[in-house]
Amino acid sequence: MSLRLGIFGGTFDPIHVGHLILAELTRYLLKLDRVVFVPARVPPHKGSDPTDPEYRYRMTDLACRDNPHFEVNDLELRRDGPSYTVETLRTFRGGTPEGTEHYLLMGADSARDLETWKDHEFLLEEATVVVLARPGVGPQDLPECVGERVTVLSTPRIEISSTEIRRLVREGASIRYLVTDPVERFIRSEGLYVS
Q1: One digit per residue, pLDDT tens: the chain, 195 residues?
Q2: Euclidean distance between the first and final Cα of the chain, in Å?
Q3: What are the distances in angstroms from CA 152 to CA 10, 104, 159?
Q4: How far apart are CA 193 and CA 155, in angstroms?
Q5: Where are the domains of the chain?
Q6: At a CB cut-off of 8 Å and minimum separation 6, what does 95 contact?
Q7: Going by CATH, does the domain composed of 4-190 fall within 3.40.50.620?
Q8: Distance (Å, rounded) from C-alpha 40 to C-alpha 103?
Q9: In the prediction, which pLDDT does 91 show?
Q10: Does residue 81 come out as left (phi exceeding 0), alpha (psi in the -120 to 50 range) or beta?
Q11: CB atoms within 10 A of CB 72
Q12: Which residues of 115-128 are buried (b: 16+ CB within 10 A; e: fewer)?
């Protein structure tokens, strides 16, 4: 039987319970053996500078520790320059047993721009691209040539954003239940997002 591997890349600045809920739901619906979270070092499609990659990796690791089907990979953090998903997929394909089925998990907002991604045709041919609903963006917003070639999952729209969490921390507000307890403790202990 082949391994069914989900690859969930992102900035995770910080990782929040919405990420975890969607990853677990996708794992269950698609019968994935594992979901690998891959924090990006330099996300090519993000406008602002993210928090130090090591902090984002540590938060992602803390968030995933209690799920035996989740793991975190620092592949993109060890690579210089922008974190291109196609390079990550090629690395995973080269490092997993033959016959492994690769599933790229992404929000509908990312899938909407998939045509602009480096070597997006390779992604669509070499992995099952799984699109997860995001607030304000649905399957109808995907370009036709992308929408026909991806698996769109009907997932709950969880309106939590990392941007909002960072704002709440800056304002001294509670982020309880938006992130896991270990992630909240890490954010507080490291003084992240306060300025």
Answers
A1: 689 999 999 999 999 999 999 999 999 999 999 999 999 987 776 656 789 999 999 999 999 999 999 999 999 999 888 889 999 999 999 999 999 999 999 988 888 888 889 999 999 999 999 998 766 666 777 888 787 789 888 888 788 999 999 999 999 999 999 999 999 999 999 999 998
A2: 50
A3: 18, 12, 18
A4: 29
A5: 4-190
A6: none
A7: yes
A8: 17
A9: 94
A10: left
A11: 21
A12: eebeebeebbebbb
Q: What share of the chain is helix, strand, coil (3-state, %, to 5)?
A: 40, 20, 40
Cα–Cα distance measured from residue 39 to residue 57, given in angstroms and rounded to the nearest whole number: 6
Task: Give the integer Cα–Cα distance in Å for 50 and 52.
Answer: 6
Q: What is the pLDDT of residue 188?
A: 98
Predicted model pTM? 0.92
Query: What is the DSSP code string of 112-153?
Result: HTGGGSTTHHHHHHHSEEEEE-BTTB-GGGS-HHHHTTSEEE
Nearest to 59 by CA among 159, 155, 169, 172: 169
